[in-house]
Amino acid sequence: MKISLKAELLKARKGGYAIPAFNFDNLEMMKGIIEAAEETKSPVILMVTESAAKYMGLDYVFSFAITAVQKATVPVILHWDHGFDINLIKKAIDAGFSSVMLDSSLKNFNQNVAETIEVVKYAHANGVEVESEIGHIGGKEDDRSSNANGFTDINEAIEFNKLTGVDALAIAAGTSHGLFKSPPKLQLDLIKEIVEKIETPIVLHGSSGVPLEDLKEAINLGITKINIGTDLKIAAANGIKLWFLENPDGFDARKYGRSSIDYVKAEAIKKIIAFKSNNKG
Ligand code: 13P
What number of other Cβ atoms are within 10 A of residue 252's Cβ? Predict the structure, then answer.
């Protein structure tokens, strides 16, 4: 059974926690995320971006991610992250994803609204929920980079939410994707105002590298979905690098792979505990 992103996020809002939304790029990262969620009894949002799915092969990723959702002992929401291509978004919907994100945030307001409505119509007709982005969160997301980094305009966000009927809304509030060049400054006043004025669950992207204390404040203000990609990529790579430092002549993919899983798992558990989603699954 598909788990409702919106219902889980509204539950999190009531319970004063956020659900971590983790990106995976390979099987090891996916296993680390699921093991972390199971060990801490946390709900989790398992996310794959368009380019990560292309790297793994769409059919492969659809089948192993859906197997992971079915086998997990905690609620796992399978989410298509940063979809730019509406045809691929529709494929993810058809394949059984719980929710999809359309990112038309660099297009003008009317185009963003029109494309979001197209996705919402198709998704809702298939029992799938939709996240879309208003304002633009810059930085390096997957294979794309952008320097555009303005904050979300509150009136635009209210209008966008009303016109599109999205189930979750991503905002630009001081974070950016990828590694930060300077320490991020979360716009807590903006987050507070948006959460107060918009009932739809609000999503914070680009949250790797943001001090956990800042993320905790954002959760206290009502943020319920926090996206983490880069911190897990770093952990996955460190697990392999450190294994080879200790085993310079090693070659067994199952051994350095296991190390990668363990590092991802440890990093994911840190976030789960900070977001207080442990024991909520
Ligand atoms: P980071 O890689 O900066 O954590 O951002 C991930 C993200 O927002 C995915 O949607």
Answer: 10
